[in-house]
Amino acid sequence: MAAKKNNQSKNVKDINYYKKKFWRVFAYSLLGVLAFFLFASWGLFGSMPSFEDLENPDSNLATEIISSDGVVLGKYFKTNRSQLKYSDLPKNLVEALVATEDARFYDHSGIDGRGTLRAVFSLGTNGGASTLTQQLAKQLFHGEGSKFLPFRIVQKIKEWIIAIRLERQYTKNEILAMYCNVYDFGNYSVGVSSAAQTYFSKEPKDLTVDESAILVGMFKNSGLYNPVRNPQGVKNRRNVVLSQMAKAKMISEAEKERLQALPITLKFKLESHREGIATYFREYLRDYMKKWVAENKKPDGSDYDIYKDGLKIYTTIDSRMQTYAEEAVAAHMQNLQQQFFIDQKNNKNAPFVNITQAETDRIIMQAMKNSVRWAQMKDMDKSEEDIIASFKVKTKMRVFTWKGERDTTMTPLDSIRYYKHFLQSGLMSMEPQTGAIKAWVGGINYKYFQYDHVGQGARQVGSTFKPFVYATAIEELNMSPCDSILDGPFMIHKGRHHVTEDWEPRNSDYRYRGMVTLKQALAASINTVSAKLIDRTSPEAVVELTKKLGVKTEIPVQPSIALGAVDITVEDMVAAYSTFANQGVYVKPQFLSRIENKSGEVIYEPIPESHDVLNKDIAFAVIKLLQGVTESGSGVRLRTQGGGSGDNRWTGYPYMFTNSIAGKTGTTQNQSDGWFMGMVPNLVTGVWVGCEDRSARFKSLTYGQGATAALPVWGYYMKKCYADKTLQVSKGEFERPANLSIKVDCYARPVIVKDTTQTEQNTDEFEL
Description:
By secondary structure, the protein is an alpha+beta fold. The protein contains 26 helices and 20 strands. A hairpin with a 6-residue loop joins strand 6 (423-430) and strand 7.
């Protein structure tokens, strides 16, 4: 009996012993786990995000370039990520995301206990345990992490800690928005905003239920469920998402079945720096922003990074006008290019005209040295002889054509000559009263031709310079558009106005018209009249006025500038002409409205620059002169519907404008540059057309003149602008100054007219 009692007490002792041991182990384990969590939160197992990091996670946001009408023109990014607010997300996407990835999202505080236990007991075979908040923590602060189990456990615990902190710091809606902003959907698109644009070419708010389901399906594995590469897999995954939505009563069973039957329909457009609209302008803006960030610092003194700071650059560009301008340039240049190839068909040195072999070799060699091939081979320490030899070896390449890119085989040397054939164009459109640039087209295709013919390339302006001479004459000599002057032989002798030999200008048609008014002279672009005017005012006075009009290039102080022997950019020409439309006040071209940081705070707003150049009367007199060009001069085809030489290349013709238009065509020597400057009261647009090399050109005036090469771009562009009533481009009259002191309305001339611009007694008379 005593032995039995001893055994019972021993068993009780053993049970108590093991109980104590269990609770001791449990307590130590619990303390160990708590210590582990505590040490992890202190960063002993690797850095943890600070309070400031949680407030402002490094979300690596792309900088957006936004038009004046609210359209995103493009982005600067290393990672193409745009930030959305919860209110920007479509309801169907939020529902699909929660139903598929974290059904109890609104009930937990960062960690889903039920899901965690399920994952532990099933060893991960019955679904994972990561909540949306944990996935966000991983995306923001750790990425995929290590595959080594001990390290993976440490990372998991850190995710839990960060998730709890995120839940305390942000609302559920903010967490959802952040998660949608950081996920990488592949094809350079990070975040729902970029993905919606890349795969469906639409804003997130416009996504349909099945499109949202596709994107939510990609959250599982965007590499595997890529709609471009794996449409069947994406469809299967989309249907799983739709089933989850039906299970959560977010859509009906009938709706689920209807949506699951739909095919995968994409409108895929890879976002790239070389694609989209306003590519030349965006590159010009990028260069500007490089200087801007050097001069404008963050509040803490550090530099802004346009590739990751999520700036919003609001520009003056109007996306509609930019699109119309690009369409007009493309339509006309494709049309004119056909004629250029025809023109060069029998030219053995095409596309170069009347130059020596030595000059041709110099152009080709320079092009080779400017090429990517030359730079790459130079970096490989190849000799110049080897590099030149490589340009003569045929290779497969993709080339630009107006009918789309084409795969072909040719030598790099032949490709250089091929690309030299292409006519280029520059167009800029600006509001004269504000200086706001509304459209900027720097060339025909940024991917293949990066040179910007608006802000970068100054070209000879031809007769478009003549209004500056006429404006100087009206100001300096008190002349008017109705004053008469003799169109006849004229010479400036050696020594006068710095000329080194006698200079006798000729008219382009080699004839003289006798007595003409200044308005008639500019309409007909008479060279002798421009030469006479600069002779009377002096080249110095013309250069001084031109500088006041904002022209930055160096202008020679020579009488020949009266005929346009001056290189000026399209940007400067538009600004100068805008001064006439703005009643004599120069306004510096403006392409920025403001810059905001990622929080929406305005960090920069430019101050407009302007100064008086001419009084209102003189500016209006120049406008009246320029109206004569479109009423009876080289721009008259803007108002007619009759045919003419080369009319099959007048893209968009007939234009049949009946409103007030002031303009001027320009054609340089040998037809290497064609210009048209066109103005209506609230819009000034300049167009230049020519080849990259001035020796590559049309052989005759028929197609090489500004009226055929450049004017049709302006006409077609304005037709498109006028057709869009939302733009409100003016069809009204230019504002006439009150108490105008200069005679601008020229009536019928008497039978006998004498040169009223001469100060001395003039005996030259011409009977009409």
